[in-house]
UniProtKB/TrEMBL annotation:
CDD domains: RHOD (cd00158)
Protein's UniProt keywords contain Glycosyltransferase: no
Taxon lineage: Bacteria, Bacillati, Bacillota, Bacilli, Lactobacillales
Keywords: Transferase
Protein name: Sulfurtransferase
Organism of origin: Enterococcus rivorum
Molecular functions (GO terms): transferase activity
Length: 104
């Protein structure tokens, strides 16, 4: 499923919502201001322009979210190229209906 030339796997916001109580790695690639205005509690803010320097566990499956799904798709491709197993969240925060929190 995860190959060098494969397209990035993706799930819907609804599918993420079903997994959110499991242990998972979720990166929010929006700007720090967007992140502070409301994010999923488990999400770690790594803005798109810094995603290339992300140093996570390469064995973990990483979910990537942004506002609409466009930046997260770009970020997912970068992460995948860097050897991470990645899933893009289609629809992003604009379709997220679960709980969010503000601040850092």
């Amino acid at each position: 499923m995860f190959g060098f030339f494969n397209k990035v796997a993706s799930i819907s916001v609804k599918e993420l919502q079903e997994k959110i109580n499991e242990p998972l790695t979720l990166l929010d690639v929006r700007t720090p201001n967007e992140y502070r205005s409301g994010h999923i509690k488990k999400a770690k803010n790594i803005p798109l322009n810094k995603v290339n320097s992300y140093k996570g566990n390469s064995n973990d499956l990483i979910y990537v979210i942004c506002q609409s799904g466009m930046r997260s798709k770009k970020a997912a491709k970068v992460l995948q190229k860097n050897g991470f197993k990645v899933v893009n969240v289609r629809g992003g925060m604009s379709q997220w209906t679960g709980q969010i929190q503000g601040g850092k």
